[in-house]
Amino acid sequence: MSATLRISPLLSSNGKLCLESLNVDPQDFNVLTHGDFSPSNILFKYNENGAPSEALILDFQICKWASPTQDLLMLIILSARKDSSYKEFDNIVRIYWEYLIDFLRVLKYKKPLPQLRELQSAIYKKNNTFSAFFAVMNHLPGDLLPVCKENNLHTFNLEDEVGKSFRTKVYTNPIFVEVVKELYPICCNRGLFNFEDY
């Protein structure tokens, strides 16, 4: 099935997708999520060798109680470049899980520690998959544009010809098109973009 045929019904169900992402399964391992966890919301300090030495997370405007997989999905997708992180999807999830367990032990977390398979399965739950779709359709196109004055959320949301022209530029950007050609089938084959049940 073509990307256009799969995505078109989703755009009309966008509100339902958003609302579903607010549903929290109390049986899952849940945390206070960032809600917009992208590389552009992480400020790095670099050492004299050019390697990151510290990181500071910014922009806590849409935090919510949810599965950490919502932030994890967004970060993996927004780190996407051609031949990039989404090809290491399972490894990134495993590495995240290992650090999560280490931190929970340091914090003397009293409840049962989340299992890797539980984290992996939470990624595919209906209430968590919106993060992947939102990242691809809303954040990634702008992130892959060269930096310029007009590249901002205000211009993207304009309903006039300026906004329409900008959105066309964003979604036809050759870099975005190449990344999505590789990323889209991966998301579809994992069931992340199969929202027929909405």
Any overview of this molecule?
Residues 2-106 form the CHK kinase-like domain. With 198 residues, this protein is mainly alpha-helical. It has one domain. It contains 9 helices and 4 strands, in the order ααββββααααααα. The protein has helices spanning 3-12, 14-21, 69-78, 89-106, 116-123, 130-143, 153-157, 161-172, 174-189, and strands at residues 31-33, 42-46, 52-57, 64-66. It has a two-stranded antiparallel ribbon. Strands 2-3 form a two-stranded antiparallel ribbon. A hairpin with a 5-residue loop joins strand 2 (42-46) and strand 3. The model has no long low-confidence stretch (mean pLDDT 85).
Structural class: mainly alpha
Q: What is the global morphology? A: globular
Q: Nearest-angstrom radius of gyration?
A: 18 Å
Separation, N- and C-terminal Cα atoms: 18 Å
- DSSP helix fraction: 40-55%
Strand content is 5-15%
- Strand order, biggest sheet? 1-4
- How many helix segments? 9
Domain unit count: 1
List the helices and strands and how they pair.
Elements: H1 3-12, H2 14-21, E1 31-33, E2 42-46, E3 52-57, E4 64-66, H3 69-78, H4 89-106, H5 116-123, H6 130-143, H7 153-157, H8 161-172, H9 174-189
Helix pairs in contact: 3-6
InterPro entries: CHK_kinase-like (IPR015897), EcKL (IPR004119), Kinase-like_dom_sf (IPR011009)
Protein name: IP11066p
Pfam family, one: EcKL
